[in-house]
Amino acid sequence: MTDEIRDRLRKVYELVNRGSTEGEKQAAKLALDRLMKKYNLSEEALNDVTRKVHRFKYATYLEERLIARLLTVMLNQKDLSNAVKDTWQKREIHIKLEYIDYVTLECAYEYFRRHMKEQWNKICAPEVARCRKAKTRSAKRQELQPIFFTKYCIASKLYKENELETRNTDNMSQAELKARNLVSGVQGGQYNRQVVTAHQLPEAKKPVTTGGQFQLFGS
Predict the structure, then answer these.
(1) pLDDT exceeds cutoff 70 at 193
(2) 21-32, pLDDT tens digit by residue?
(3) Which of 24, 74, 121, 126 has its CA 20 to 30 A from that of 179?
(4) Are 44 and 78 in contact (CB under 8 A)?
(5) Cα dihedral: 146, 83, 53, 36 (round 10)
(6) What is the C-alpha separation between 51 and 100, in angstroms, rounded?
(7) In whole angstroms, what is the distance from residue 153 CA to residue 150 CA?
(8) pLDDT per position as a tens digit, 147-166
């Protein structure tokens, strides 16, 4: 099958799922059925044709986790289990996606990646820089990154309903309390809609509690 035919199938498939009107969707569905019959394609084969491998570059632990979080929140994928991480002289995550999902993920990733980096440099980087030795700087960075990332995701509403849990501060060490106090000033991103109107970030409900500290499950 030529690339031209693959591109045609992808475009028709997108119209079937995301056409602007029901008439457009129905016409696209008839066209897709004809193409599948013409090229003897099964549903499984069609899924393989309409999804391409897209590459997302990352430089840090935070950016790698951000890709996984956006997959969960925006595309309803639980993790990076369907992705391939390329570590041979470069850091890339290869994910097979439909084109419109790729656009959704790419735009959100670029926005949050830059905003998250600004917040890290403002809040946590100075604390890491205070460590005199490379070893202690690395240890401090590893200590702060998970706590910072959880705080940033909550502030940015990058979580799904029922995905938060409450921890009792009485059970936290002084080091953890200090770290959580440090990241308390982290500001979340304001990204809330996509270039494609059919894809918007869901409005996350603001959690309510009488005490304790919030974190994402598994953080």
Answers:
(1) no
(2) 888 888 888 988
(3) 74
(4) no
(5) -130
(6) 10
(7) 5
(8) 999 999 999 999 988 888 88
C-alpha–C-alpha distance, residues 214 and 204, integer Å: 15
**Which position has the token pair 């979580």?**
159
Residue 41 backbone phi and psi in degrees, to 5: -100, 135
CB-neighbour burial class of residue 56 (10 A; exposed 0-12, middle 13-18, buried 19+): buried
CB contact at 8 A, 1 and 38: no
66-97 burial by CB neighbour count: b if 16+ within 10 A, else e? Answer: bbbbbbbbbbebeebeebeeeeeeeeebebbb
Q: pTM of the predicted model, to two decimals? A: 0.72
In this prediction, residue 216 carries a pLDDT of 54
Q: Which helix (H) or strand (E) holds 68?
A: helix 61-75
The first and second tokens of residue 10, run together, are: 């992808």
Report the pLDDT value the prediction gives residue 185, as an integer from 0 to 100: 94
Residue 58 CA: distances (Å) to CA of 55, 64, 76, 90, 218: 10, 6, 21, 9, 22
Determine phi and psi for 11, rounding to 5 degrees: -65, -45
Separation between Cα atoms, residue 88 and residue 75, nearest integer Å: 27
* Structural tokens at position 204: 């996350």
Residue 59 and residue 139: Cα distance in Å, rounded?
Answer: 18
